[in-house]
Amino acid sequence: xxxxxxxxxxxxDNARISIEDIAAMTKRSAxxxxxxxxxxxxxxxxxxxxxxxxxxxxxxxSHKVRAEIELQVVPEREHGYDGIADRIYRFxxxxxxxxxxxxxxxxxxxxxxxxxxxxxxxxxxxxATLQGVSATRTHFILKTYKENDVVYVKENGDxxxxxxx
Length: 165
Fold this sequence. Notes:
alpha+beta; two-stranded antiparallel sheet; 6 helices; about 20% strand
């Protein structure tokens, strides 16, 4: 594994780790680590540093509603999915957007809103009316157990399997 990959893995695990700690863990100088991180940022490999928020705890305070919307889309001539994706990801409600290899649904949108009605209105008034969208399918996220390698549920200490009598 090269040094850039090693630094990226450390930052993936803890974006708040100091340059000095990374230097000690990789047996490199702090200046060398700083230069590598600066290059990774300049090259667009590191795009953002962010806190991972537990949605199960945050939702008790903010009452946000999240949903995954599958979109059946007709690709645009000369642009494919890029043109419609560009129009969709600009909406502030859109948290993630993916092109998918599903049977009839080409794009998956992850939305966040204040209420179920906010999500419904956004889908019916914004997404479904876009030229090229021929169908939508909405899935509301009821509970998040794991996301981005982070387990959000408290694990009990007893992991034994039950015995059958």
